[in-house]
TrEMBL record:
Domain AB hydrolase-1: 29-145
Region described as Disordered: 196-219
Keywords: Hydrolase
Protein name: Alpha/beta hydrolase
GO MF annotations, alphabetized: hydrolase activity
Length: 335
């Protein structure tokens, strides 16, 4: 990173090596930022220094299979349980005392954050999910689809079809993405708009098409509202180096993830203070136009909700608004 207030670090154990970015005073409480697919630690760069200025030691790791962290060889290495274990090892390395750290997860980082809260509530002061709500054991986001937009006969899983596609055609999707990483990222990492909520998302018909973009990505110029040239080049370079077989494997452990969630010490409840950040124009998660957030609301003891006017890539598209939502919640003593 070329930002003067952000440094790099690494923690290595026998099972995994986590590379991470850090900002803030090492003596301040840890604020752990967990990215999702297909990103890396640098995805949080726009929010790290402002959050550090609020009095936090802000840590953004490359999740396993991404960036400079270990790329493990087996798809089973990318279960949520393994991701949670990585975060516990990182908190230990940072010296985070029990009950002092706050974890923020976006996209696939959100299930890691939620499961950290249900399996290790003693380690946390609070938990934040961005875009992806908590799904307690026995619930599924596919049960909360807007059937006016996604008729069941045409879209049985609604916008969540891509989740099954990753499990059913993993080699085909990895090869498709690896063939044109810049085109893939330029096509999917676009700023949100109200129009995105008016038509079915491309994610809803991946299996029917035989891929996300089987005829090639439709765009090749990045959206500067989400990624500037330097951020785009850095993400492309990382994903071209690590490959998508690893990144996509996070979607290939559904049965194991369900069993792990069912073993949570809280029974799936979120007992620590929680914040959920809705992205108003996120056409996939669609938490403001469906009932997807209802199971989370029922399972949280202390939940705050905020809305950011952005598409799915909240931290890049609207970093100031995300920082404001986080700082407001943190300043109220929620975590």
């Amino acid at each position: 990173m070329d930002a003067p207030g952000i440094s790099t670090g690494r923690h290595t154990t026998q099972r995994h090596s986590s590379a991470y970015l850090a900002a803030g005073d090492p003596d301040d409480p840890v604020l752990l930022l967990v990215h999702g697919w297909p990103e890396h630690a640098r995805s949080w760069a726009g929010v790290m220094e402002p959050l550090a200025a609020a009095g936090y030691r802000v840590i953004a790791p490359d999740m396993r299979g991404y960036g400079a962290s270990t790329v493990h060889p087996d798809p089973s290495d990318y279960s949520i349980e393994e991701g949670v274990a990585d975060m516990i090892e990182l908190l230990d390395h940072l010296g985070a005392a029990p009950g002092t750290a706050t974890v923020v997860g976006h996209d696939y980082g959100a299930p890691v954050a939620w499961n950290l809260a249900t399996h290790h509530p003693d380690r946390l002061a609070g938990v934040v999910g961005v875009c992806v709500p908590h799904t307690p054991p026995g619930t599924s986001l596919a049960d909360h689809v807007d059937r006016r937009l996604y008729p069941v006969e045409d879209y049985p899983l609604g916008q969540w079809d891509y989740l099954v596609a990753h499990a059913r055609m993993p080699e085909r999707l990895a090869a498709e993405f690896d063939a044109d990483v810049p085109g893939l990222l330029a096509s999917i990492m676009r700023a949100g708009s109200p129009r995105a909520l008016e038509r079915p998302a491309p994610n809803a018909s991946v299996r029917a098409r035989g891929g996300w973009f089987p005829d090639g990505p439709p765009r090749h110029d990045p959206d500067p509202r989400v990624l500037d040239d330097a951020a785009f080049a850095a993400l492309v370079a990382d994903l071209e180096r690590t490959g998508f077989a690893a990144a996509n494997s996070w979607y290939r452990n559904n049965r194991e993830n369900d069993a792990y969630a069912a073993r949570a010490v809280t029974g799936g409840r979120i007992a620590v203070p929680a914040l959920f950040v809705h992205a108003r124009w996120d056409a996939v998660c669609a938490t403001l136009t469906t009932t997807a957030a209802d199971p989370m609301r029922a399972a949280c003891d202390d939940l705050t909700e905020e809305i950011v006017d952005a598409g799915h890539w909240v931290a890049q598209e609207q970093p100031e608004a995300l920082v404001a939502a986080l700082r407001g919640w943190l300043s109220r003593g929620s975590a």
